[in-house]
Amino acid sequence: MQKRFIFHNDGVTLIENILAIAIIAIGLFSVMSVVTIVTKGNTHSKRVTTATTMAQDKMEYFNKVDYSDVLGTSTVTTDYYLVAVVQNDTPGANTKTITVNVYWDPADATSSHKVELQTILAEE
User: Fold this and answer.
1) Which residues contact 88 (CB under 8 A, 6 or more apart)?
2) Are 103 and 114 in contact (CB under 8 A)?
């Protein structure tokens, strides 16, 4: 003769409910922390892209103007600070070394966030 076991699964116990809630909470907190990190990374990437575009635009401006009109400038916008430094006769005679720096967060030259582009123009 076989023994029959009778199981009574009338519901979920309090401990099972607490464990289920704890597992869901841990999962949600991990997802929320990943979302926060990704959002900060996207914001930083957007700022780097904007600063690089500003620096490239300034370099293109210098390529379009006459050699004698290439002078150092600075521009301040709401979120960015652009500085173009022009060194005459560097690295050789009749050349100009142009360095364009774009700073942000804060938008001044003391910021640790910057993009720097450099080029050399020669007089034709």
Assistant:
1) 96
2) yes
Amino acid at site 103: Y
Q: List 118's β-bridge partners, or say none.
A: 99
Best CA proximity match to 52, nearest among 122, 97, 115: 115
87 and 97 Cβ atoms separated by less than 8 Å: yes
Q: Is this model's pTM higher than 0.85 or not?
A: no
Cα-based torsion angle of the residue sequence 101, 102, 107, 113 in order, rounded to the nearest 10 degrees: -90
Q: Let me know if residue 79 belongs to a domain.
A: yes
Per-residue pLDDT of the chain (124 residues; tens, 9 = 90+): 666 766 666 677 899 999 999 999 999 999 999 999 999 999 999 999 999 999 999 999 999 999 999 999 999 988 999 999 999 998 999 999 999 999 999 888 889 999 999 999 999 7
* 3 falls within a domain: no
- Residue 73, in any domain of the structure: yes
User: Is 92 contained in some domain?
Assistant: yes
